[in-house]
Amino acid sequence: MLLVNNVEQECYSPYPDDNIYAPEDGTVSTFTDPTCGNAMYLSGATGRHGFCQLDTYAVKSGSVVKGQVLGKMGYTGYTIPSGPGGRHLHWVLYRDWE
Prior knowledge:
By secondary structure, this protein is mainly β.
C-alpha cells in the first residue's frame, strides 16, 4: 500500500476473485459519491478502511468478522477505463481517523 500522511492506498484487480473480504472485525457503513461510486467504510482496530468502486454489497451496515465477504469489485464512480475494463477495488486505510 502507498502511505501518505498516515493514509495507505492501494488498487486491486478482480482476478482471480472479485469478492471483497473484511480485513478485520469491525463495523460497516455504506455510501455513494461520484468519484468513489458504491462504497463502504469498515471501522476496526487498525483504523478506518474505505472500499470504493463496488459493484454490489453483501453487507450494508452492522458488525462483520474478519474474512466475511463485504461485496464485489466493480466499476462504479470514476474509473479508467470506464466500464467493465475498469473493474477494481480502491482500498484506503486511515490509521488515525478519529
